[in-house]
Design a protein that fits this description.
386 residues; four-stranded antiparallel sheet; three-stranded mixed sheet; 9 strands; binds flavin-adenine dinucleotide
């Protein structure tokens, strides 16, 4: 029995949702998986090519309406994230940052001119975007950011550094959040603007099939039209993060599923002490526990997707989904790694790659500790962040 059959998750999906999932899975199997070991080992991806392919597939900003976006439901978007992350968290990150962070920020807070200029080309994957919130000294506490934007005549002048920015050096536009006299505001910074540089971070052990960069803004002069008019205050970027976190609720289960499928197949073939590893009770106990957590995580993801489609989902519910599903996916990846023994530490199998990738997923889009604090506040009424 396939692990997902146990919980009959497919019974909760429409035919269209299952077809979208199959279409994304086909592209992952045929075009992405064969290259992943090389991309991960070399720490390089053909980001432009991938973005165009994802654009053709229709997964960039697929849950947004209009401006060339597919306008599909939250569960369809989640299932696409699941399949992409079953291939690699780095590929899902490219799509999440493009669609749920950069495009969503423009779609939600941008002017009509900004939307028309950027969204259709970004949906097609012809242009890439990134989202610069985190700074070297401010990650979990973005309110403290030092990047500033000051008015000079009719222009804005930006100074500061953004750190750990996915898609940074391959982006055509960076959505940069900065302190202004009025509060935190978002700015669209086109690549090539004088004073703006993006440099890749090296020596990553996790999410190697993903571009991660530092953005430096050194007296970057932008016109008034570069401001996202609809966002003022930290709620602007936080709402974008909520979108991306939702995709992770599904995505993390994709990585876990790929690990579990690999471990079940391996345990069936590997003989120890004269019989298949899968026939030992300790192995079966591990597999049963993992199938339970995977099934519960998938059910939670679909449930949250339906709440999102109904427009009733709360940020706390997204935090619960992100905290639970990433934590359990990481645990599943680690346990699957033990089943593969020494083979579990090589890139010949996807398990260790998923395990190290999930370490990043546990940290970005709000660390597990921050999501625990969000839930703690919701449960007790006491904020324990500071
Ligand atoms: C691969 C990768 C890609 C990323 N992509 C992006 C991107 O595209 N755009 C972007 O803006 N950012 C991005 N990030 C940054 C990411 O969002 C931050 O790393 C994350 O928010 C945590 O910030 P930090 O690393 O500064 O850790 P810190 O905030 O310094 O936290 C360090 C530790 O302290 C804990 N901690 C913090 N506050 C509290 C508290 N109040 N109580 C208890 N414990 C606490 C944290 O949970 C963590 O365990 C990315 C990160 C990675 C690794």
């Amino acid at each position: 029995m396939h692990p997902t059959t146990l919980f009959a998750v497919d019974a909760l999906l429409t035919e269209e949702e299952r077809e979208i999932r199959s279409a994304v899975r086909r592209v992952c199997d045929r075009e992405l998986r064969p290259n992943l070991t090389t991309w991960f080992e070399e720490g390089r991806i053909p980001a432009r090519e991938l973005a165009r392919r994802f654009g053709e597939l229709g997964v960039l900003g697929m849950h947004l309406e209009g401006y060339g976006c597919a306008g599909l439901g939250a569960v369809s978007y989640g299932l696409a994230c699941l399949e992409l992350e079953a291939a690699d968290s780095g590929l899902r990150s490219l799509v999440s940052v493009q669609g749920s962070l950069a495009m969503y920020a423009i779609w939600r807070y941008g002017s009509e001119e900004q939307k028309n200029e950027w969204l259709p080309a970004m949906a097609a994957g012809e242009r890439i975007g990134c989202f610069g919130l985190t700074e070297p000294d401010f990650g979990s506490d973005p309110a403290g950011m030092r990047t500033s934007a000051k008015r000079e005549g009719g222009d804005w002048v930006l100074n500061g550094t953004k750190m750990w920015i996915t898609n940074g050096s391959v982006s055509d536009v960076a959505v940069v959040w900065a302190q202004t006299e009025e509060g935190i505001r978002g700015f669209l910074v086109p690549a090539g603007t004088p004073g703006f540089t993006a440099t890749d971070l090296r020596h990553k052990v996790s999410l190697r099939a993903s571009v991660t960069s530092e953005l430096v803004l050194d007296s970057v002069r932008l016109p008034q039209e570069a401001v996202l008019p609809g966002a003022l205050g930290l709620s602007g970027p936080l709402r974008c993060l909520n979108e991306a976190r939702f995709g992770i609720v599904f995505g993390a289960m994709g990585a876990a599923l790929d690990c579990l499928e690999t471990a079940i197949a391996y345990a069936g073939e590997r003989e120890v002490f004269g019989r298949p590893l899968a026939s030992f009770q300790l192995t079966q106990d591990k597999l049963a526990d993992m199938a339970l957590e995977l099934g519960k995580g998938l059910l939670l993801a679909v449930h949250l997707g339906r709440l999102k489609e109904a427009g009733t989902i709360t940020p706390e519910q997204v935090s619960a989904g992100k905290l639970n599903n990433v934590r359990e996916a990481l645990e599943i990846a680690r346990t699957c790694r033990t089943i593969l023994g020494a083979s579990g530490i090589t890139l010949e199998y996807p398990v260790i790659r998923h395990a190290v990738n999930l370490e990043s997923v546990l940290t970005y889009e709000g660390t597990s500790e921050i999501h625990a604090l969000v839930l703690g506040k919701a449960l007790t009424g006491h904020a324990a962040f500071a």
